[in-house]
Design goal:
Length: 305
């Protein structure tokens, strides 16, 4: 179950379902739900539907709507209905620009939200033959950055990645369940209380295990650059993803992971009832409008250090 949750979160920017917070009240209110994560790619996908009653997973599509994206006050395009909940727009967001989403559904008030496209983190691999293994690689961050996330997507050995490949995350890639690091700005909100690779390999790791993701907090000009750090995970025939996030995406992903962990905390039933609310910035409806931008570093099928 944990693996399924984390894989779903990893592909959040690719396919966003019509999700909402659990409502334990007896009165159900039908609301428009819109989810859009802007990405650094040439086609943006939006999910639009009505929310479902508690306990139901059937979401009613909304085939008629006026959905537009604005860069400041300038309209950049109108989303076209593709299939079921999915709407598409041919557009590549510009880093640093603030975008506004407008959704007009007949019979409902206009839905609006804003987000800013983040700038990619400046990060690269550091060659270190003395410490580099299939489980341990070094990297450097070369400039200040807003909060970003790190996770590893593992590819099947039947589809080898070579060092010079230009890679993209594919649907059958699997997120590594555990990841660790010694980055100076690491947020340990999802850290376990044991070191990486405990009971898995002969040598225990050097960092504490985190569930699926590392969150790196904002790094400012007061730090000394480059920041050199290592990542521990399964790093052979894999893709290390460095995902910068808008403020909205950062809050949404962190709150989603906290809530997901609450539901799988079988030894603590009170976790189900804590105020683990998933962040939303949609005005007039449900959902999320946010932005993220990925830097992908491929790790070869062979040891390439």
């Amino acid at each position: 179950m944990r693996e399924a949750i984390f894989k779903g979160l990893a592909t959040l920017a690719i396919v966003v379902s019509c999700t909402e917070n659990i409502d334990f009240s007896s009165e159900f209110e039908k609301k428009v739900t819109v989810n859009l994560i802007l990405e650094n790619k040439d086609i943006q996908e939006l999910s639009l539907c009505y929310n479902a009653e508690p306990g139901s997973f059937r979401y009613e599509s909304i085939p008629e709507a006026d959905v537009r994206l604005y860069d400041g006050e300038n309209e950049v395009g109108k989303f076209i209905h593709a299939i079921r909940h999915t709407w598409k727009l041919d557009y590549t967001p510009i880093a640093g620009h603030t975008y506004r989403l407008s959704v007009k559904v007949p019979g409902h008030k206009e839905i609006t939200a804003e987000t800013t496209m983040p700038v990619n983190v400046k990060v690269k691999r550091v060659q270190d033959k003395q410490t580099s293994t299939d489980y341990h690689k070094s990297f450097s961050q070369n400039a200040p950055a807003s909060p970003y996330w790190i996770f590893v997507m593992i590819r099947s050995s039947t589809k080898p990645i070579w060092t010079k490949d230009i890679v993209e995350i594919e649907p059958d890639d699997n997120i590594a369940n555990s990841i660790g690091s010694d980055h100076v700005a690491m947020d340990n909100f999802n850290a376990d209380d044991f070191l990486m690779f405990t009971d898995l390999i002969q040598k225990t790791g050097e960092s504490f295990s985190h569930d699926g993701y590392l969150r790196i907090g904002e790094t400012d000009k007061n730090l000394e650059y480059p920041i050199t750090f290592f990542i521990e995970s399964w790093l052979r025939n894999a893709i290390v993803v460095f995902r910068t996030s808008s403020e909205e995406y950062d809050k949404y992903l962190k709150s989603s992971i906290i809530k997901a962990n609450a539901y799988i905390a079988e030894d603590d039933p009170t976790a189900y009832f804590e105020e683990n609310v998933i962040y939303s910035n949609i005005k007039g409806g449900l959902g999320i409008f946010a932005a993220c931008s990925d830097t992908l570093i491929a790790r070869s099928y062979i040891i390439d250090d």
